Amino acid sequence: FKNELELTVNGPRGLMRNLAVQRISRPIDLFRAEPGTKVFQNTIDSISLPRGVRLLRVKPTDIILQLDKLVKKNIPILYETTGSLPDGFELISITINPASIPVTGPEPSVGHVDSISTATIDLSRFTTSTTRPVALKLTPAIKDLVGEPIVTAAIVIKEKMEQKTIENIPVKLLLSGKKTYTLKPDDVTVVARIPYTTLRKTKDLKTLFRARIMGVELPAGTHKLTVEIIPAEDIEVLEIKPEMFIADITNEESDNGR
What is the pTM of this model? Predict the structure, then answer.
Protein backbone atom coordinates (compact mmCIF):
# COMPACT_ATOMS: atom_id res chain seq x y z
CA PHE A 1 0.00 0.00 0.00
CA LYS A 2 1.02 3.61 -0.51
CA ASN A 3 2.58 4.74 2.78
CA GLU A 4 2.58 8.46 2.01
CA LEU A 5 -0.31 10.88 1.47
CA GLU A 6 -0.33 14.05 -0.56
CA LEU A 7 -2.08 16.94 1.22
CA THR A 8 -3.32 20.22 -0.20
CA VAL A 9 -3.61 22.86 2.53
CA ASN A 10 -3.81 26.63 3.00
CA GLY A 11 -3.17 28.98 5.88
CA PRO A 12 -0.94 31.83 7.10
CA ARG A 13 2.53 31.86 5.52
CA GLY A 14 4.34 31.46 8.84
CA LEU A 15 2.33 28.37 9.73
CA MET A 16 2.80 26.94 6.27
CA ARG A 17 6.58 27.41 6.49
CA ASN A 18 6.71 25.53 9.82
CA LEU A 19 4.40 22.80 8.51
CA ALA A 20 7.10 21.59 6.12
CA VAL A 21 9.33 20.47 9.02
CA GLN A 22 6.57 18.97 11.17
CA ARG A 23 5.74 15.26 11.11
CA ILE A 24 2.16 15.03 9.96
CA SER A 25 0.64 11.55 10.23
CA ARG A 26 -2.65 9.85 9.53
CA PRO A 27 -3.37 7.37 12.39
CA ILE A 28 -5.21 4.13 11.65
CA ASP A 29 -6.83 2.16 14.48
CA LEU A 30 -6.27 -1.59 13.99
CA PHE A 31 -7.21 -2.63 17.52
CA ARG A 32 -10.27 -4.66 16.48
CA ALA A 33 -9.18 -5.39 12.94
CA GLU A 34 -9.68 -8.88 11.51
CA PRO A 35 -7.70 -10.55 8.69
CA GLY A 36 -8.81 -9.47 5.22
CA THR A 37 -8.91 -6.35 3.04
CA LYS A 38 -9.70 -3.14 4.88
CA VAL A 39 -10.50 0.27 3.34
CA PHE A 40 -9.92 3.45 5.35
CA GLN A 41 -11.19 6.76 3.94
CA ASN A 42 -8.89 9.76 4.17
CA THR A 43 -11.35 12.42 5.28
CA ILE A 44 -10.54 15.95 6.29
CA ASP A 45 -11.21 15.00 9.90
CA SER A 46 -8.84 12.02 9.81
CA ILE A 47 -5.68 14.15 9.74
CA SER A 48 -4.76 16.54 12.52
CA LEU A 49 -3.16 19.85 11.45
CA PRO A 50 -2.00 22.88 13.45
CA ARG A 51 -4.70 25.41 14.33
CA GLY A 52 -5.08 27.90 11.50
CA VAL A 53 -4.14 25.45 8.72
CA ARG A 54 -7.02 24.13 6.63
CA LEU A 55 -6.97 20.80 4.77
CA LEU A 56 -8.39 21.13 1.27
CA ARG A 57 -7.64 17.76 -0.33
CA VAL A 58 -6.04 14.37 0.38
CA LYS A 59 -4.61 12.02 -2.22
CA PRO A 60 -5.32 9.15 -2.36
CA THR A 61 -8.78 9.35 -0.93
CA ASP A 62 -8.58 5.82 0.49
CA ILE A 63 -6.01 3.60 2.16
CA ILE A 64 -6.41 -0.08 1.37
CA LEU A 65 -4.73 -2.55 3.74
CA GLN A 66 -4.46 -6.31 3.39
CA LEU A 67 -4.37 -7.67 6.93
CA ASP A 68 -3.08 -11.17 7.61
CA LYS A 69 -3.09 -13.31 10.72
CA LEU A 70 0.31 -13.35 12.41
CA VAL A 71 1.75 -16.87 12.73
CA LYS A 72 4.64 -17.96 14.94
CA LYS A 73 6.15 -21.42 14.42
CA ASN A 74 9.38 -23.37 14.69
CA ILE A 75 10.22 -24.69 11.24
CA PRO A 76 12.42 -27.83 11.18
CA ILE A 77 15.58 -27.80 9.09
CA LEU A 78 16.25 -30.78 6.81
CA TYR A 79 19.68 -31.47 5.35
CA GLU A 80 20.13 -32.04 1.63
CA THR A 81 23.06 -34.00 0.19
CA THR A 82 24.55 -34.81 -3.17
CA GLY A 83 27.23 -37.25 -4.31
CA SER A 84 28.55 -40.31 -2.51
CA LEU A 85 31.31 -40.86 -0.01
CA PRO A 86 34.57 -42.27 -1.40
CA ASP A 87 34.87 -46.06 -1.51
CA GLY A 88 35.38 -47.62 1.89
CA PHE A 89 33.47 -45.01 3.91
CA GLU A 90 29.90 -44.84 5.19
CA LEU A 91 27.72 -42.03 6.47
CA ILE A 92 26.61 -42.57 10.05
CA SER A 93 24.64 -39.38 10.64
CA ILE A 94 24.19 -35.69 9.86
CA THR A 95 22.97 -33.48 12.70
CA ILE A 96 21.84 -29.91 12.02
CA ASN A 97 22.22 -27.32 14.77
CA PRO A 98 19.88 -25.65 15.44
CA ALA A 99 17.39 -28.28 14.33
CA SER A 100 14.74 -25.62 13.64
CA ILE A 101 14.37 -21.85 13.35
CA PRO A 102 11.60 -19.70 14.86
CA VAL A 103 9.69 -17.68 12.27
CA THR A 104 7.00 -15.08 12.91
CA GLY A 105 5.14 -13.62 9.96
CA PRO A 106 1.89 -13.38 7.99
CA GLU A 107 0.02 -16.66 7.62
CA PRO A 108 0.14 -16.70 3.78
CA SER A 109 3.95 -16.58 3.93
CA VAL A 110 4.58 -18.81 6.95
CA GLY A 111 1.59 -21.08 7.45
CA HIS A 112 2.29 -23.47 4.56
CA VAL A 113 6.03 -23.82 5.22
CA ASP A 114 6.57 -27.18 6.94
CA SER A 115 10.37 -27.43 6.59
CA ILE A 116 13.44 -25.61 5.33
CA SER A 117 16.27 -27.31 3.45
CA THR A 118 19.96 -26.64 3.83
CA ALA A 119 22.16 -25.80 0.91
CA THR A 120 23.33 -29.02 -0.74
CA ILE A 121 26.13 -30.82 1.14
CA ASP A 122 28.57 -32.57 -1.22
CA LEU A 123 29.47 -35.89 0.44
CA SER A 124 32.15 -36.76 -2.13
CA ARG A 125 34.55 -34.35 -0.40
CA PHE A 126 34.68 -36.13 2.97
CA THR A 127 36.58 -39.11 4.37
CA THR A 128 36.48 -38.09 8.04
CA SER A 129 33.86 -36.70 10.41
CA THR A 130 33.56 -32.92 10.26
CA THR A 131 31.42 -29.94 11.30
CA ARG A 132 30.64 -27.37 8.62
CA PRO A 133 28.62 -24.12 8.40
CA VAL A 134 25.74 -24.46 5.96
CA ALA A 135 23.40 -21.87 4.47
CA LEU A 136 19.65 -22.41 4.12
CA LYS A 137 17.43 -22.45 1.04
CA LEU A 138 14.88 -19.75 1.85
CA THR A 139 11.98 -18.35 -0.13
CA PRO A 140 12.09 -14.55 -0.55
CA ALA A 141 9.17 -14.20 1.89
CA ILE A 142 10.91 -16.22 4.64
CA LYS A 143 14.24 -14.49 3.96
CA ASP A 144 12.56 -11.12 4.57
CA LEU A 145 11.45 -12.39 7.99
CA VAL A 146 14.60 -14.15 9.26
CA GLY A 147 17.46 -12.81 7.14
CA GLU A 148 20.11 -15.31 6.04
CA PRO A 149 20.93 -17.51 9.05
CA ILE A 150 23.78 -20.05 8.98
CA VAL A 151 23.45 -23.44 10.68
CA THR A 152 26.09 -26.07 11.39
CA ALA A 153 26.07 -29.61 10.04
CA ALA A 154 27.85 -32.24 12.15
CA ILE A 155 28.71 -35.00 9.69
CA VAL A 156 29.74 -38.34 11.19
CA ILE A 157 31.62 -40.62 8.79
CA LYS A 158 33.01 -44.04 9.55
CA GLU A 159 35.46 -46.12 7.61
CA LYS A 160 34.00 -49.46 6.52
CA MET A 161 35.32 -52.61 8.16
CA GLU A 162 35.80 -55.96 6.46
CA GLN A 163 35.97 -59.29 8.22
CA LYS A 164 39.05 -61.39 7.45
CA THR A 165 40.58 -64.62 8.73
CA ILE A 166 44.36 -64.40 9.16
CA GLU A 167 46.23 -67.68 9.64
CA ASN A 168 49.74 -68.64 10.73
CA ILE A 169 50.43 -65.69 13.00
CA PRO A 170 53.56 -66.70 15.00
CA VAL A 171 53.18 -66.83 18.78
CA LYS A 172 56.01 -65.66 21.05
CA LEU A 173 56.40 -66.78 24.67
CA LEU A 174 58.00 -64.10 26.84
CA LEU A 175 60.27 -65.60 29.55
CA SER A 176 62.73 -64.28 32.12
CA GLY A 177 66.25 -65.60 32.62
CA LYS A 178 67.99 -68.13 30.40
CA LYS A 179 65.19 -70.43 29.33
CA THR A 180 64.15 -72.16 26.14
CA TYR A 181 60.70 -73.31 25.18
CA THR A 182 58.58 -75.13 22.65
CA LEU A 183 54.94 -74.28 21.93
CA LYS A 184 52.20 -76.54 20.64
CA PRO A 185 50.92 -75.17 18.35
CA ASP A 186 53.32 -72.35 17.59
CA ASP A 187 51.00 -70.14 15.57
CA VAL A 188 47.46 -68.80 15.86
CA THR A 189 44.53 -67.92 13.59
CA VAL A 190 42.65 -64.66 14.13
CA VAL A 191 39.27 -63.55 12.80
CA ALA A 192 39.13 -59.76 12.79
CA ARG A 193 37.38 -56.70 11.34
CA ILE A 194 39.95 -54.55 9.55
CA PRO A 195 39.52 -50.99 8.19
CA TYR A 196 39.03 -50.71 4.44
CA THR A 197 42.14 -48.62 3.76
CA THR A 198 44.35 -50.71 6.05
CA LEU A 199 43.40 -53.84 4.12
CA ARG A 200 44.37 -52.31 0.81
CA LYS A 201 47.72 -50.90 1.84
CA THR A 202 48.95 -53.95 3.82
CA LYS A 203 50.51 -56.75 1.75
CA ASP A 204 50.91 -59.25 4.58
CA LEU A 205 48.01 -59.10 7.02
CA LYS A 206 49.92 -61.10 9.63
CA THR A 207 52.05 -58.00 10.26
CA LEU A 208 48.94 -56.28 11.69
CA PHE A 209 48.96 -58.59 14.74
CA ARG A 210 51.30 -59.56 17.56
CA ALA A 211 50.59 -62.82 19.36
CA ARG A 212 52.29 -63.28 22.72
CA ILE A 213 52.11 -65.30 25.92
CA MET A 214 53.35 -63.68 29.12
CA GLY A 215 55.45 -66.27 30.96
CA VAL A 216 58.01 -64.13 32.77
CA GLU A 217 57.37 -65.73 36.17
CA LEU A 218 56.91 -69.27 34.91
CA PRO A 219 59.30 -72.00 36.14
CA ALA A 220 60.61 -74.80 33.98
CA GLY A 221 58.03 -77.44 33.13
CA THR A 222 54.89 -77.91 31.07
CA HIS A 223 52.23 -75.22 31.21
CA LYS A 224 48.83 -74.58 29.60
CA LEU A 225 48.74 -70.90 28.65
CA THR A 226 46.44 -68.35 27.05
CA VAL A 227 47.59 -66.30 24.05
CA GLU A 228 47.19 -62.52 23.90
CA ILE A 229 46.55 -60.82 20.53
CA ILE A 230 47.65 -57.21 20.10
CA PRO A 231 46.15 -55.80 16.86
CA ALA A 232 47.17 -52.69 14.98
CA GLU A 233 45.13 -49.50 15.46
CA ASP A 234 41.37 -49.64 14.75
CA ILE A 235 41.32 -53.42 14.23
CA GLU A 236 38.66 -55.40 16.10
CA VAL A 237 39.54 -58.98 17.01
CA LEU A 238 36.48 -61.26 16.87
CA GLU A 239 37.93 -64.73 17.44
CA ILE A 240 41.22 -66.40 18.34
CA LYS A 241 41.88 -70.02 17.35
CA PRO A 242 43.19 -71.73 19.42
CA GLU A 243 43.14 -69.72 22.63
CA MET A 244 45.17 -72.18 24.71
CA PHE A 245 48.74 -73.40 24.09
CA ILE A 246 51.00 -76.02 25.69
CA ALA A 247 54.45 -74.67 26.58
CA ASP A 248 57.42 -76.83 27.56
CA ILE A 249 59.93 -74.58 29.34
CA THR A 250 63.53 -75.65 30.07
CA ASN A 251 66.31 -73.89 32.01
CA GLU A 252 69.39 -73.47 29.82
CA GLU A 253 71.63 -73.86 32.90
CA SER A 254 70.18 -77.31 33.60
CA ASP A 255 70.75 -78.41 30.02
CA ASN A 256 74.36 -77.18 30.05
CA GLY A 257 75.00 -78.94 33.39
CA ARG A 258 73.99 -82.26 31.91
Answer: 0.65
